[in-house]
Amino acid sequence: MAVTLALCLAALSAVTVVLSAPSEDLITDLPGLTWKPNFEQYSGYLNGVGTKRLHYWFVQSSSNPKTDPVVLWMNGGPGCSSLHGFLTEHGPFRAQPDGESLLPNPFAWNQVANMIYLEAPAGVGFSYSQDRNYSTDDDDVARNNHLALQDFFKKFPEYSSNDFYISGESYGGIYVPTLASLVLDDHSIKLKGFVVGNGLSDDNMNDNSIVYFAYFHGLIGDEDWNNIYTSCCSGNTSKGYCDFVAGSAKSSKCASELSQVQILVWSSGLNVYNLYADCAGGVRDLMLHYDEDRNKFVTSNFGWLFMFLKNKNYEKLSEIPLSKLESTPPCVNDSYVVKYLNSAPVKSALHISNDAGDWDVCSSIVGAGYQRNYNTMGPQYQKAISRKMRILVYNGDVDMACNFLGDEWFVDSLHVSNPQERRKWYYKAQDGTKQVGGFVKVFDRVAFLTVRGAGHMVPTDRPRQALEMFVNYIQNTPF
Questions:
Q1: Does the pLDDT value for residue 411 go beyond 90?
Q2: Which of 47, 392, 382, 58 is nearest to 192 (CA)?
Q3: In the chain, pLDDT over 90 holds for what percent of residues?
C-alpha cells in the first residue's frame, strides 16, 4: 500500500511539473541586468487565430505571486507595442539611454501584481503571423487576444484561480473594453475589472473636448475661439457643450476651423502627449516627411491617426509603399528602446522567433491596414457595469491625444449609480509630504481619476503617483 501511494504521489508530482510554468519560456539571463530579480519572468508566444503568434513578456509579482492578481497590459496605436510600456512606464526595470543597460524601476506595478505584457495584434513588435496578413479590426484583435489569454492560462495553470484584470492605455481604450466583453462570457477566467489610461473611449467626445482643452490652455485665442464657436455651435449644444463634430458635418467653414485645431494639436511642433514637455528632436514636420538618413517616409503619429489621414483623403499616404513608411510617436525619442530590443543577445534571451520582424515602437503596416468597428465604448462599459466589474478610467491632465475632459464626459455619460462629489486625491511625495495627486470622481464600482501634471504615458511622467493609484485600485482601497 505504501509503495502504491508513493508511486501515485510521484505521478502527481510529474503531472504538476508538466502543467506548471513553461521552462522553455523562462528568462534566465537578460542582457543589461546587473542584479538578480526576486521574481521569475517569462517570454514567448501565445496562439491566436490560425498562424498568428502573439509575443508576451510575463513578470511575476515581487510580493506574493501565488495570490496576487494577474494583470494584462496593452499599449495602443492601434499598432504599438506593449514592450514600450514595459521598458519606459511601469515594468520592473527601465531601459537606459545607452540602449544596452537596464535599471530597476522602484515604481514597478509588479510589486503588487503578476503582469502580462502582450504585443498585439500580430505584426506589432515581435508578434507575427506566418501568412503575413496583418489586416485586422477591433473585433479581430479582441478575438485573438482572448485566445492568447486562454493559451496563457494553459501555459500557467497555477494562475488560473487568481483574480484577473485587463489594463491598457491610448487605443487600449478600445482594446481593453472589447476584450473584457469577451472574457466576461468566459467563466474559466476570473475577470474582476479593467483599467483604461488616457484611452480613446468615444470619438466625438474626444474630438469635441480637445477644442475646449486647446482654448482653455491658451493654444487658440479669443478670435479663433469665437470663429469656431460661431461656425460650429448653432443648434449643436444640446449636450451641455458644443458638438463641433456635428457642426462640421453641416458646415464646411466649421469643418475647416475644426481641422485647424487638429493640425495645431498634432502637427505644429507641440508635444501632443504632454503639452508642457518639449518635443524630442525639436519642431519639424510631424505629419509626414521623408527622412533621407533612413530612406523612409516617416509619419509621426500612432495608428489611429492613419484613419484620420485616410478619411481626409490624404493622397500622399496611399502613394507610399508600406515598406517605405515608418510610424513613430511624435515628440518622443524611443531609439534606445529600439536598440535594446533589437540586439541579438536580447532577442535570444526573450526567445524571439526567427519569423518575427525587427522590433519597433509602432507598426506602420498594422496601423495603415487597421479597420475600426467602433466609435464609442459605451455598450462594452455598460455590459461590464451590469456584471459588477470594477472599472478605473485615469488620465494625465496635460495629454492632448486622449484628453481628460473627453474621458470624463464619457464616464459621466454612462450614468453609473451613486455618483460622489469630485474631490482631490493625495499621494506621499519622496520627501514624505502629502501632495495633491489629481482629482477623482467615484461611482458604484467605477472611478474616473486625473493625474496632475502627467501626459499620455502617466507612469512615465508621474511614476510615484501612478503606482499609488494602481495599488489603490488593485487592493480596492479608497483613492
A1: yes
A2: 392
A3: 80
